[in-house]
Amino acid sequence: MKVLLLLVGAFVLQEASAFAPGLYCGMDNCYEVLGIGREATKSEMAKEYRKLAKKWHPDRARGDEAKKEAEIKFRLIATAYETLKDDESKKDYDYMLDHPEERYYHYYRYYRRRMAPKVDIRIVIVVTVLVISIIQHISASHKFKEAIDYLSREAKYRNQAEEMAKERGLLNDGGAKGKGKKRKDKETEKEEREAILRSIIEENIDIKGGYKRPSVWDTLLCQLVLLPVTLFVYMRWWLDWTWRYTIQRHEYDDQAKLHLIRKNMKMPESQFLSLPDEKHVEFLREELWIKDKFVEWKKEKEDREKEKLAQSGRYKQIRRYMKNKGPGQISFLED
């Protein structure tokens, strides 16, 4: 019974104490470890720390026991100094001394500060957005280069570029060449010719969609910076749409019709704008902004695709295989 009372008394005493194992200086008072009071300045604190660190440095100890004791004392002194030299950490420690009953809250504040990232989260966000924007721009440049490479190999665009180059005097028709021309000169001339044609194609071509010309305005960084302007433009457009077509019941103009057609098709704006103008004219002629006509047009298109697929030799072969053997019947063994 006496042992139980002693254990309970010790537990109550520990709960009433501000010190706890694993927090700051453990069961020691950080101020007493450095031999200073709460009102001590940082310069006084640093002076006492240097004096104690010099006294208890393990290299000054002689013998194994003395060295172990010096290491323990030295770590305690360093912990006390690290705790009190930082204003926020000192504030938390003083709060713990003044409110010993909030034991679990002290653990939370202590480990939250220790686990918190040392770098400002705002810097992390800015760097992340910047890296993503750079990757976006590099990827867009690579896709645009692929598109120009493809167009440079197409005879239609090469012939048009050659005609424009000749009109500008950038290319000649061949003419007589000197006998002393080396192969290297021919290769150089070919490279220059390709560079001229490529630059003309790149200058005059209008690529839309995923392979359009890269622009910094399409990166995440610029989009975030321009977000207030984008929201303002959208809200103005929405209010104008609501006023003209919902309240006043005006007839749709061509732009409004194309917008409704794109919504019916569930197509991104960049993809819809990349379609040829002939397609837009066809959509308007079919009156696809009307929901019922769009559903009918879509069904007819799907039926045509199915009919075209049914007439495909490859599709007939697959159907024949599925009918005779079915899936899972492929074997590498000879019959």
TrEMBL record:
InterPro entries: DnaJ_domain, DnaJ_domain_CS, DNAJC25-like, J_dom_sf. Residues 168-190 are annotated as: Disordered. Its main location: membrane. The chain crosses the membrane at residues 121-140, 220-239. Belongs to the DNAJC25 family. PROSITE patterns: DNAJ_1, DNAJ_2. The keyword Calcium does not apply. GO terms for biological process: protein folding. It is a multi-pass membrane protein. The keyword Acyltransferase does not apply. It holds the Pfam family DnaJ. Keywords: Chaperone, Membrane, Signal, Transmembrane, Transmembrane helix. SUPFAM superfamilies: Chaperone J-domain. Residues 29-97 form the J domain. Residues 1-18 form the signal peptide. This is J domain-containing protein. GO terms for cellular component: endoplasmic reticulum membrane. It is found in: Membrane.
